[in-house]
Specification:
The complex is a heterodimer.
Chain A (H helix, E strand, L loop, with lengths): L7 H12 L7 H9 L1 H22 L8 H8 L7 H22 L7 H10 L4 H6 L2 H7 L9
Helix pairs in contact in A: 1-2, 1-3, 5-8
Chain B lengths: L4 H8 L3 H23 L2 H18 L9 H20 L10 H4 L6 H19 L3 H12 L4 H8 L3 H18 L20
The chains are: A mainly alpha, B mainly alpha.
């Protein structure tokens, strides 16, 4: 014997799940429906709702090509190709050199010439980089500790 | 094996090609979900764009516990819910689109009935809370199982079941045909009043 100990709220939750094919055990629900007219009415309303949703589901939803707009907005956040990143780093490095010449006229020299002359003398890269005006400028700004 | 894993690697490296591929694979569904959540096409298009920009920025947060598609749908639903909450957007009943209303493949009265049903349901859906609307859209319009909805919304399956029941009851109530439920038994107070 199945005892009908469901509340209407619980029965309606199970009705909804049965509509979705997600209810394993329906005997208690059936027992409740057998004695509860309002829940039987609710069952009919849910079935009507399901037919409405089926109609809505059948309607095509138009879509627009959003890619041009997405690409335009995403492009600045994208990583560029490796060559472009290296070129940008080199430009930035030489830019600091130009700033060094501007900040210390007469003392600095073009970074490219400085590098080539030292390399031609066969000096190690680490030693000659330390004398570059770019590094002298960077040393003027102590590193800032990263804050969380 | 998640078919989108390779895509995720590219997204984590912020490759435009990977974003393009993600859009090609999932753009239509994301846009459809946004449209059904937000109603108005312009809002839906803005939201769908935001979803892919967030995807580009947050792909590193994808931990692989759910499938990428499920994770992306969660991102989409959350984006829509955020918009609804922030802007207090409410779906405005859209006009029937000309190409749909003039569909000659079915009898005019059938087309009209379907359009009326759609508009009425969309109007009612717009009055639901974002939480209820999301669960109904995922179940009724996207056809997801309770398990898939639970994964998408990151809630237990039991919550999906109860939320769906409440959302449907609310729709029935809004439609003005809600039957009166028998009052649930009132728990007896622990102490009797003097």
């Amino acid at each position: 014997m199945i005892l009908d100990d469901l509340t209407c709220a619980s029965a309606r939750e199970r009705l909804s799940a049965r509509l979705d094919g997600e209810l394993d055990e329906a005997r208690a629900l059936e027992a409740h429906l057998g004695r509860c007219a309002p829940c039987r009415t609710h069952e009919r309303e849910l079935a009507r709702l399901a037919r409405g949703f089926a109609a809505l589901r059948a309607e095509p939803v138009g879509s627009t090509d959003l890619w041009p707009a997405i690409e335009r907005r995403a492009r600045p956040r994208a990583a560029g190709p490796l060559l472009a990143r290296v070129a940008a780093a080199l430009l930035g490095f030489l830019g600091v050199g130009a700033a060094a010449r501007w900040l210390a006229p007469g003392d600095g020299e073009p970074a490219a010439r400085h590098l080539l002359e030292h390399l031609a003398r066969g000096e190690r890269a680490g030693a000659l980089l330390a004398d570059l005006p770019e590094y002298r400028v960077l040393r003027a700004f102590p590193p800032v500790e990263e804050t969380r | 094996m998640d078919p989108d894993l390779e895509l995720v690697h590219g997204l984590r490296r912020r490759q435009m090609g990977a974003l393009r591929e993600a859009y090609e694979r999932h753009g239509e569904r994301v846009q459809r979900l946004c449209r059904r959540m937000l109603g108005r096409p312009a809002d839906a298009e803005d939201a769908a764009q935001d979803v892919f920009l967030k995807l580009f920025e947050r792909a590193g947060a994808f931990d692989g516990r759910a499938r990428f598609a499920t994770w992306l749908h969660r991102l989409t639903v959350n984006t829509c819910l955020h918009r609804l909450e922030k802007e207090r957007l409410r779906l405005v009943r859209p006009l029937p689109e000309p190409d749909l209303a003039a569909d000659g493949r079915e009898a005019p009265h059938e087309s009209l009935a379907r359009t009326e049903t759609r508009l009425e349901l969309e109007r009612l859906l717009a009055r639901l809370s974002g939480e209820h609307r999301a669960v109904l859209v995922l179940r009724e319009l996207e056809g997801l199982s309770y398990r898939e909805i639970a994964a998408t919304l990151d809630v237990p399956e039991g919550t999906v079941m109860s939320r769906l029941a409440r959302a449907r009851a609310e729709l029935v109530r809004l439609a003005g045909t809600a039957p009166r439920a028998e009052p649930d038994p009132v728990p007896r107070p622990l102490l009797e009043a003097p």
